[in-house]
Amino acid sequence: MKRSNLPFSEDILVKKLQEREEQAFHLLYDQYSPALYGVILKVVRDEETARDVLQDSFVKIWRNIPSYDSQKGRLFTWLLNIARNTAIDALRTRHSGQSIQRDIDIVDSVDLHQQAYQPSVETLDLPDKVNQLNPDRRQVIDLVYFSGYTHEEVAQKLNLPLGTVKTRVRSALQELKKLFGT
User: 85-106 burial, b for 16+ CB within 10 Å, e for fewer?
Assistant: First the structure.
């Protein structure tokens, strides 16, 4: 992400968004849409759907920005969760409420991650940061955040206790926070 494009701090951006300043929303979109689009595309695997989900995500962001609390987490994490959840909802809707089936024959998620998502300046070097995680943590992050699995689905897929999956996700997010220097 190109933080230098913001003419003011992230806290001021959030304040302006919460005051419903349209220009702040445009800045937010310019700053974060490339990274969010990359995550959404990893989940839905269709460019047209990804564009629609990105738009839906930003509508949700605009509607819910008053509820954002910087004490509970970073803005990017909050945005990422909205985009990811919107993408998962879109998949579930597309599959008429059926369980989302995954292709078991796909190469492991790390290889898929490398082939399908090329990092750019606009996307925070997110794939590079994720690749620095230990393999167990990287695997659960790939499945949860990039492939759209729930924690329960990851536990079943990897034959792990749900608590172990949740611990690995939490540990990976803490490690990523350190890697991003936040």
Answer: ebbbebbeeeeeeeeeeeeeee
> Which of these, 59, 18, 54, lies nearest to 10 by C-alpha position?
18
- Non-local (6+) Cβ contacts of 60 within 8 A are 82, 86
Q: Check if the beta carbon of residue 166 is closer than 8 Å to that of residue 140.
A: no
How many Å apart are CA 124 and CA 167, to the nearest integer? 24
Span 53-70, pLDDT tens digits: 999 999 999 999 999 988
Q: Which residues contact 64 (CB under 8 A, 6 or more apart)?
A: 82
Q: Determine the Cα–Cα distance for residues 113 and 68; give it in Å rounded to an integer.
A: 29
Q: How far apart are CA 42 and CA 91, in angstroms?
A: 12
Whether the CB-CB separation of 57 and 86 falls below 8 Å is answered with yes
Residue with more model confidence, 73 or 50: 50
pTM: 0.56
